[in-house]
Amino acid sequence: MPDTHYLYIEDDRLSREVIKLVMQDIMGISTLTIFENSENFLERLRNLPEKPNVVLLDIHVHPITGFEMLRLIRSQPGFERTKVIAVTASVMNEEVQKLRSAGFDGTISKPIDTTVFPTLLQRITQGESIWQIF
Amino acid sequence: MMETNVQKFNLWSFLTRPHPRITDIEMKRQSALLAGLMLAIIVMVSVAEALLTIQNGQPSVVTLGGLVLTLVLYFLNRTGNYRWASVLFVAQNFLLIFVASVVTNDLALLLFASITIILSAMLLPPRLSVILFFVGLVVMIAIMRLHPMTAEFTTLAPTIVFFVTSPLILVFLNHRTQLEKERQAELREANSKLREHEALLEKRVEERTRELAVAKDEAEAARHRAEEADRLKSQFLASMSHELRTPLNAILNFSQIMSMGVLGPINDRQKTTLNEVVGSGKHLLALINDVLDMSKIQGGMLNLFLEENVSLNEVLDTVAGTAASLIGEKPVMLIRDEDALPPVLCDKRRIQQVLLNLISNAAKFTHDGTITVSAKCQNDQLLFAVIDTGPGIASKDKDIIFQPFQQTETGIQHAGGTGLGLPISRNLIEAHGGELWVESEAGRGAAFIFTLPLRSPKLQEMLHEQMGANHA
């Protein structure tokens, strides 16, 4: 099976470090791309050598928000089946509703549980929608 | 029968109707009265004339003259000249009597002068009647002087009668007129008072309406302020959530990763120390979550995230797994006594939170014995219980444990609580329409029990609102 390509957009340095450690060091994933902000998002997305299968993003990034990024991703040909997961520290019930209705395929709340995260990622890659809010 | 009466009445009222140009009510009536009297006289005199003509073979000129005069006066009255008609009528009457008595040399006729006084009292203004009375008196005395007649009692009688009764009648009729006038004045005053009152009421109503409008505006403004305050609170809690969790992310994850040896080999002591860091971090996270939950509850902003067809058996499985680690090495056995539960509408995460809270309390305080988790379906509700064989709860403490920020003696001794777990759990259950309570005695363990309704219209409505807000 071809490698799954991951894209992660996060402006918090520490959060990036954590995900890098978990995905690269613990899970051994080598196909992870990280954007440190959402500037020129569409251009950078198009310029990626490989289309990501799974996009993890933080809602509260600048200048383009997570919702806007989702919309841009979906508007691109070939990205209709890309799994887009919101990774966010602010998870209140109203927000989960908003995420759901915006069309996200799931959400994982921060702080992530490093013991569970790998399994979750696997399930997502296999096509499941995860709404892990605790 | 009614028809003829109406017809008759119409004829009479036609003949005695006052002229429209008379506006005063009293004069209208007087005009009608005069007309009636004159009609009667005309009829009687006509009949008398007819009889006299038959008897004498020729009509009496005097009677004819009187008839004509009366007719003239009738029409005068009919055309609205009431004053002239009435004065002339009374004068004619007076003259007739005096002339008749002189001509017939019969003083007895003077008796009829009383009738004239009555007529004048009815038809003329009071002052005129008084003048007429004295004039009549003078004339009467003059006649008696100029025509010396036997001054017998029988001839004096008319004078006396006239003399005595007329003033009485005058006074009486005057009294009636005055009474009438007073009544009218009273009525007018009552009317004007009423109108004053009306005006006052209208003013009051206007005032009140203005006050209400102002109050309504103020209420609107207050409502907007309250809504704004709520919005700010909500925003604050949301951002607080974010701000507090982000650094914790770093603490927990980096420590976990390090302790897994991902960044290099770790010796046992380092591993243990890092686990302490993780433990504290998790504890801090629990505290933050509890405080945020309590803020939401106290701010009335706790919203459930409702899902349909939740399998609480699965939730119980998850929680039971955690229970084992909470019990640790203690000689405590976990017993599960659960029925197969029907799917239910609830906030899965929050029910898990409640179960976890109850079980971790039980695990914390029970040092040996059993912890039983039971779940039953009872008519239209689910019944959950967490029963332990720990120290139990004294009745004085049963209320305290559900109060925020308060712990019992025993509770404080077992460090590691916020005192918020139970109050939050109770609020969460009550938000679902259920109840949470404890049954316990000191030294005899404790049973924490809660119910969840299976079909709740309140929850259904909340679900609709939740979905509605979604699509908004």
Topology:
The complex is a heterodimer of chains A (134) and B (472).
Chain A: E1 6-9, H1 13-26, E2 32-35, H2 41-46, E3 54-57, H3 66-75, E4 83-88, H4 93-102, E5 106-109, H5 117-125, E6 130-132
Parallel strand pairs in A: 1-2, 1-3, 3-4, 4-5, 5-6
Chain B: H1 2-16, H2 25-56, H3 61-78, H4 82-104, H5 113-123, H6 126-146, H7 153-259, H8 268-298, E1 307-310, H9 312-327, E2 332-338, E3 344-346, H10 348-365, E4 369-378, E5 381-388, H11 409-413, H12 421-431, E6 436-440, E7 446-453, H13 457-471
Parallel strand pairs in B: 2-4
Antiparallel strand pairs in B: 1-3, 4-5, 5-7, 6-7
Give the strand order, joined by hyphens, for the main sheet of chain B.
Answer: 2-4-5-7-6
Q: Tell me, briefly, the overall form of chain B.
A: rod-shaped
Number of helices of chain B: 13
What is the 3D form of chain A? globular
User: pLDDT average of chain B, as an integer?
Assistant: 84
* Main sheet summary of chain B: 5 strands, mixed
Strands in their spatial order, largest beta sheet of chain A: 2-1-3-4-5-6
CA-CA gap between termini of chain B: 80 Å
CATH homologous superfamily assignment of chain A? Response regulator
Fill in the CATH topology of chain A: Rossmann fold
Q: Provide the number of structural domains of chain A.
A: 1
State the low-pLDDT regions of chain A, or none: none
Largest interface: A-B, 31 and 30 residues
Give the oligomeric state.
Answer: heterodimer
CATH architecture of chain A, by name, is: 3-Layer(aba) Sandwich
Q: Percent of residues of chain A in beta strands?
A: 15-25%
Mean pLDDT rating of chain A: 83
Molecular structure report:
The complex is a heterodimer of chains A (134) and B (472). By secondary structure, chain A is of the alpha/beta class. Chain A has a single domain (6-132), classed as Response regulator (Rossmann fold, 3-Layer(aba) Sandwich). Chain A has 5 helices and 6 strands. Chain A has helices spanning 13-26, 41-46, 66-75, 93-102, 117-125, and strands at 6-9, 32-35, 54-57, 83-88, 106-109, 130-132. Chain A has a 6-stranded parallel sheet with strand order 2-1-3-4-5-6, sandwiched between helices. In chain A, helix 3 (66-75) links the parallel strand 3 and strand 4. The longest helix of chain A has 14 residues, at 13-26. The radius of gyration of chain A is 14 Å and the shape is globular. The model of chain A has no long low-confidence stretch (mean pLDDT 83). With 472 residues, chain B is of the alpha+beta class. Chain B is 68% helix and 10% strand. Chain B contains 13 helices and 7 strands. Chain B has helices at residues 2-16, 25-56, 61-78, 82-104, 113-123, 126-146, 153-259, 268-298, 312-327, 348-365, 409-413, 421-431, 457-471, and strands spanning 307-310, 332-338, 344-346, 369-378, 381-388, 436-440, 446-453. Chain B has a 5-stranded mixed sheet. Chain B has a two-stranded antiparallel ribbon with strand order 1-3. The mean pLDDT of chain B is 84. At the A-B interface, helix 1 and helix 4 of A face helix 7 and helix 13 of B.
